[in-house]
Amino acid sequence: MSASNMVINKKKIVTILVSAIGYILMVGVAILFLLPFYWMFVTAVKPANEIFAYPPLLWPSEFHFENFVDSMKSSDFGTFFKNSTIVTTCATVITVFINLLAGYAFAKYDFKGKNVFFMIVLSTLMIPTQVTMIPNFIVMSKLNLLNTYTGLILPPCAEAFGLFLSRQFMSELPDELIEAARIDGATEFSIFRKIILPNVGPLLSVLIIFTVMWRWNDFQWPLILLSKSKMYTVQIGLSMLNGSNYVNWNMLMSASIISIMPVIVVFFIFQKQFIQGIASTGIKG
Amino acid sequence: MVDLSNMTVKKRKKPPFWNNIKIVPYLYILPNMILFGVFMILPLFLALGYSFVKWNGLGTPKFVGLQNYSYIFKNKTFLTSLFNTLKFSIIVVPSIMMFALLFAVILNRKIMFRGFFRVALYIPAIISMVAVGMTFTWLFNSKIGLINYILSSMGFRAVDWMNDPKFALIMVVVGTLWSRIGYNMVLYIAGLQGISAEYYEAATVDGANGMQKFLYITMPMLKSTHVFIFITCVIYSFRSFDLIYVMTKGGPLHSTETLVVYIYNTAFQQNQYGVANAAGVTLFALLFIFTLLRLREEKEGK
C-alpha cells in the first residue's frame, strides 16, 4: 500500500517539477522574445541625448511621445504610407477575388485539363521569386511599368497560397447546395455570389489577413522596381533611413513601430483565424 | 412522355458562354492562370534564356553559351555566397526546428498564460523583415547596443558585430531565429494536436515515462510535420533576402552574402544580367533537386 502510494507521489512530484521547469523556461523565452519590442519602444521615446548614453538606460528619464509625430514629419512617411495602403488594398482585393473564383472552379467543377492546370499551380511553388525577379524587372521596364502602382501590385499577385487555401476550404462545402440552386435555374455566377460567398466567411478573413500582412511587409519586389522616392512603400522608406552614416535611432525606431502597427492591429483583431490559417495550410512563409 | 419531350426542348436551348457549365470553370481560373503564366512560368524560361547571354541591360544581348555558368563556378564571390548559404541553412534549419518543437511541446500542455506565451513567440513572425532588421541592427550596435552591454556586463568582450566577418552572420542568424521560431512552433502545435490522446493513455497504462512517450509516440507521429517544416525551412533559408540586405547588405567582406544577395547585387548593382540569371537558375536547380530527393525519400520510407 504505502509503496505504491510513494510511487504515485514520486510520479506527481516529477510531473510538477517538469511543469515548473517548462514554465520557468517559457517565462525566460517570452522575455527574450519581447525584449526587442521593448527596446524599440524605449529607444523611440527616449530623449535624444539618452540614446547615446552608455551603459544604455533601460528606462528613459522622460517619455517623448512626440518623437512619433516628428519622425512622420521629418521624412516623406505620409507618402510612403499612402503608397503602401494603395498597393496593399488593391493587391488584397485582386488576390481575394481571383483566388475565390479559381478555388471554387478547382473544388466544384469538372473540366478537361483540371489536373494539368492544378499541377501547373503546384509547380509554381517550386519557383523561387529570386529567379523570376530579374526577368520580371526586365519585362516591367520594357512595358514602362517601373515606379508605377500597376508594376508594384500585379507580379506578386501570382501566388499559389490563396488558391490552395480556397480550393481546400470550398471542397468541403456540400455539393447539394450548388445542385439545388442550379435546378432552380440560378445562373452560375449568381450561385457563386449568393450561395458560395456567404458560406466562406472564415476563408475570406484568412485570405485578407495573410494578403494584407504579406503585401504590407513586402520588400524585395518594391526594392527592385522603385527608384523614385515619391513611389516608395513604407518598407523601402524605412530601409533608406539606415543608409546614411549618421543614424537617428530615435526616429528610426519610432518609424519602425509605426510601420508595424497596421499588421499588429490586424493580428490582434483576427488572432484566432491567423493561427488557424497557418495551422491548416502552413504553406505561406 | 410529355415531360421527356419538354426536357429535350429545354436541353436544346444552349446557355450563353458565361453560364455554360463547360466553359465557366475556365473563365474562373483564367485570371490566376494569366498571372501565373506571365509572372512565374514565362520568367522562369526567360531566366534560363538570359543565363546564356552577356547583357548589361542596355544594347543587344550577346549569346555566349555556357560561359556565364563557367564564370560563376570560378568566381570567388559566387562560391563564397554558395558556401554562406549552406552554412546559414545548416545553422538556422536545425535551430528553428529544435526550438519550435521544444516550445510547442511545452505550450501544448495546459500551463498558465499559455495563450500569452504563444502570442509572445508568434508576434515577431508577422512584422516586416525590414523592421526586424532595423531593430537587430540597433540591438547589435557595437558601441552602445544592448547586446554588447549585456555581454560585457557578463564578463565577455564586446564584439564589433557589423564589421567583424567572423561575427556578422551570427547577428543575421539571431534575427532569423527570432522571427521564424514562433511560426514553426504553431505548425508543430497543430501537428501535436493531431495526435490522438489514446496513444498516450495506452502508453501510460503500459508504464511508459514522459521521455519514452516523446520518443516513441510524439516523434514518429509528427513525421509528416517534421518533413514539411524541414522542407519549408530549407527553402526559406535559401531564399532569405530582406533581413540580410537590411542588416549587412552581404558584408563585411562578403561574410553574410548568400546566393540570393549575390543574385541581387550582380543584377541590380553591377548590371550583369546574364551572370545573375545563371546564378538564379543554379539556385532554382538546387532547390528543385533538394525538394525532389526529399519527397522521394519520403515516398520510399512509406
Description:
- The complex is a heterodimer of chains A (285) and B (302).
- Chain A folds into two domains: 2-64; 76-280, MetI-like fold, CATH 1.10.3720.
- Chain A contains 15 helices and no strands.
- Chain A has helices at residues 2-45, 48-51, 66-74, 77-108, 114-124, 129-142, 149-153, 161-170, 175-183, 188-196, 201-217, 220-225, 234-241, 249-269, 271-280.
- The mean pLDDT of chain A is 88.
- By secondary structure, chain B is mostly helical.
- Chain B folds into two domains: 16-63; 67-301, MetI-like fold.
- In chain B, helix 4 packs across helix 13 (259-269).
- Classes of the chains: A mainly alpha (285), B mainly alpha (302).
- At the A-B interface, helix 1, helix 4, helix 5, helix 6 and helix 11 of A face helix 2, helix 4, helix 5, helix 6 and helix 7 of B.
Features:
heterodimer, A: 285 residues, mainly alpha, MetI-like fold, 0% strand, B: 302 residues, 2 domains, two-stranded antiparallel ribbon, 14 helices, 1% strand, globular
**pLDDT averaged residue by residue of chain A:** 88
Q: What's the total count of β strands of chain A? A: 0
| The CATH homology group name of the largest domain in chain A | MetI-like
How many strand units of chain B?
Answer: 2
| Helical segment count of chain A | 15
Rg calc of chain A:
25 Å
CATH topology of the largest domain in chain A: MetI-like fold
Task: Report how far the terminal alpha carbons of chain B are from each other.
Answer: 56 Å
**SSE string of chain A, helices as H and strands as E:** HHHHHHHHHHHHHHH
Query: Helix content range of the residues of chain B, please?
Result: over 70%
Shape of chain A: flat
